[in-house]
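Hello forum,

I keep getting stuck at the same step: I have a sequence, I want structure tokens, and every attempt I make locally crashes halfway through. Rather than fight my setup again tonight, could one of you with a working pipeline run this one for me? It's a single chain of 221 residues.
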Amino acid sequence: MDELKGKKFIASFSGGKDSTLAIYRAINEGLKPFCLATAYKSDAILSWFHGMSAELLQNVSDSLSIPLKLIKTTGDKYNINFEKALKEAADNGAEVCVYGDIDIAGHFEWGNERCANAGLTPYFPLKNEDRKEIVHEFIDDGFSAVIKIVDTTRLPESFLGKMLTRETVAEIEKIGADVCGENGEYHTFVFDGPLFSNKVNYVVKEKIVQDKYAILNIDVR
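Reply #2:
Ran it on my machine without issues. Output:
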């Protein structure tokens, strides 16, 4: 993507492995980070999908030296508020939005539409690559992540709290679940790696079961 080299990007950031790897690749390809955009539940005071506190996300932002933009929103206004944040970034100099999606067509369509409405160029660094190779690249590059959420209909609850290693990936594959968790089998929290100036410390407060999901409630020390 030589035409994007040198351009400033806002990243759709969950705090998980794929969005982190996408940011890492974008920076290595010569794009310049402008800010992290994380959707945040107005009522639950936690990030959408990965359930992280604002303070924990801010600690990640500080370690990455990339400003954090929390997009506080309800589900029914998610698209509108996400676009509003992208448009604000575009008005202040951002030119590209980086996403960590891999190969689900609906995800690409969603990202493309948000960018079209906000005046940004969408960029998917991981697009259509092999899922297993992506998760191995993330691990081999030296990132550290803990499995924070597990869909217990597709992966045993025992994976909750495990570090994402090649051995863990092999166990997931043996069970028959997607090794990258692209279909929501699991979600991660990335707390260290080559982009981080320091390890982001956290404590496990409790394990929660909500419907089919097992959740590791983690927060700052």
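The domain at 2-123 is CATH 3.40.50.620 (Rossmann fold). If your local run keeps crashing, start a new thread with the error log.
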